[in-house]
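Q: Could you write out the predicted structure for this multi-component system? I'm mainly interested in how the pieces pack against one another.
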Amino acid sequence: MDGMVPLFRMEGISKRYGGVRALEKAELSVSSGSIHAILGENGAGKSTLIKVMAGVVAPDEGRMTLDGGEVTFASPGAANKAGIVCIFQELSLVPELSVADNIVISDPPKRFGMIDRKAQRRIAEEALARAGAADIHPLALVKDLPLSRRQMVEIAKALARKPRILILDEATSALTATDVAKIFSVLKRLRSEGLALLYISHRMNEIAELADHCTVFRNGRNVASYPAGSKSDNEVVELMIGREYSHIFPPKPAAVPATAAPRLEARKLSWADRLHDISLTVRAGEVVGLGGLDGQGQRELLLAFFGVLRGLSGQILIDGKPAAIASPSAARDDHIGMALIPEDRKTEGLMLPMTVRENLSFAALDRLSKAGIIDRAAEQRLIDDMVGLLAIKTAGLDIPVGALSGGNQQKVVIAKWLMRQPRIILLNDPTRGIDVGTKQELYQLMRKLADTGAAILFYSTDYDELIGCCDRVLVLYDGAVKRELVGAEITERALISSALNIHGEESPVGLGADA
Amino acid sequence: MKDWRYWLAEQRGTLLAFGIFIVMFVIYTSNHPAGFTANVVQTASNKGVLLAFVAMAQTLVVITAGIDLSVGMIFTLTNCLASWLVIGTGVETAFGVVAVLGTGLLCGAINGAIVIYGRLQPIVATIATGAVYFGIALLLRPFPGGSVNEDLADALTGRVFGVVPASLVVLLAVVLVVWVPFSRSVLGRAAYAAGSSEMAAYMSGVPIRRGKFAAYALAGLLAAIGGLFLTFFTYTGDAAYASGNAYTLFSIAAVVLGGVSLFGGKGSAIGAIFGALAFRTIGDLLFVFDFDPLWQPLFQGVILLVAVSLGAFALFRVRNRLEWFL
């Protein structure tokens, strides 16, 4: 950085949404040939900062300079033209169009005024290869691809625009470990080609591996800027949250005796070619983790319990009795008492335009109504309890839930189900993309629910969470349980080796020591 | 997967509509007293292209995840206008055709401007503009009447080389001149992208507004081509309210039959054309089987329901219930 003229500079940038200050005199400078990490809790202003850079949001005040000249961007298209390309956390792919259509969407190659499909195909293939995703067919429709593949397409699309500044906002959150490794080598190559990269992630190990320079944001201001590696993880986390960062995971109680009757049991559960002979038990008071690489059947397993999948073979037992769970509404019935906190809160968990109050009540309406009429007083009491219990920060119960921050939205999803006092709680990667402070509250809540007698099955892509929260962890690989880790056996090493299905022995296919 | 499989998957709706039409048309002609003759095909084609043009118009708007409830009224308005203007010497007639098509384009552009820049719901905006367009049509032709350049009318509703219906040739030309360039242009891509996911399209810097505007404006143009042809067939202009509304509703049916998704972003005008031709053939089938014409609406409704249900069969194969909602 020293002595070099920064490629891009932001000075005194402020942005307010209504009464909320998202950015307050923020500063940032970005240089060519470096990877710059932006850290901060959710709501610290990172997203707004990037939206300003990418032309999505106009700042209230402040100036931006590119190559020393002042610039303003009226639209994402204008920022793209200036060479600033952003890969957003919410995917910006058009589902009904093909991969190739999406990759060239901002500036398709033209011949005689029409889109040149051959050239488009070639550009798409090149971009996919550059992103290390040559296995994706350019003619496939985006809606038919799984989330992790879509994210690779998103990256290829950004590269096809030949950016000078590439912004990655939680771009690896849905990727499998192999893809993350590929993307990292791509990013390092881009850095050596002279690009400026801005990298936003909640994963400290990723930042440690990639970044040259870090800037920490808190409450809309940049509070610290330092060369990567000059501060310890603990120091960084303290900068982010501005308080002592310890005891993030609540202490685990003594193990539930193995003789206790299981609350939830699966026997030889199989479905399509995604689940194979899965048997497991979860007892009341236990937090059982599901580990493994992303996409090994964890999500399908939770959906199977929740009555979403058809054509399931094997048996599900509740309190030792076989149960036929035909739909989510059967699963939540009082005699089963199951709740599922879904992976994608925006589509499966919440009705974003509806109010916080309405969202909270949905799952419990039958309990709160008599002869079809909702008992408003009872509803209010229960909602007050939940807002208090989870410390949901909202300007009111009658504002759209979409106006809350990600962490608070997730709390609403959880509160919605807690209103039914579920006996079995299934969680599908509930902390993805939410801030450290909220995560910590969720860990404590999970333990509290288990202590009061709930059986919890918890899928997470974050190994630290599995280690910190779970009494037992089942590691899935290719739709089957490969290993069960109990108590002190749950270590990062054990989780990773069983996730890769190498089980401590020499791997026959030679996965390499990099894991 | 091989490239052709992706192509097949993309064209599934269009091919299905083509199949439905062919089956119906074969049943129709094989039971027709005159059989598969140039005359029978010409008559069927002349009836079919009217709805085909209006269905193409509807397709453009539906692709953007909108709906145009004024297409039938633009069709009626341009019919009335043509009965005044498309007459006289060659030059006068040519001027009349241009004026009629220009009017259609303008009507579509007004719809587009209101929906895009006024940010009104397409369904409400086009009900309102449709009423306005019909009002103008009524002022132009309080009673059915007027006339048209009969040489031109006969040429375009007759046969080329004595076999091929001229109206079909015009339909093909319109597909090549309007639909193919649109669907392969940046604006067309923008219309599809806006219909599939407007937010993603915006974030990608796609010219959404221009794409949607082009779709609405061209829809007006296509409806006007339909209105022009109606004049060629009937030699008169008629501000018929029921007929205008029927065309609007049938165009939606034809679009759905043709595999165009009402949620936007998916489908092709070519599918909608076959959807329109199939829908028209239903009525003709009743004729050859000597049904009372009173049965026609009921029968059309049943066939439409069956055909649309074909597309829903895939839902029975879904093993993950969440896919129902995608």
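A: Regarding packing and overall arrangement: Residues 504-515 of chain A have pLDDT under 50 and may be disordered.
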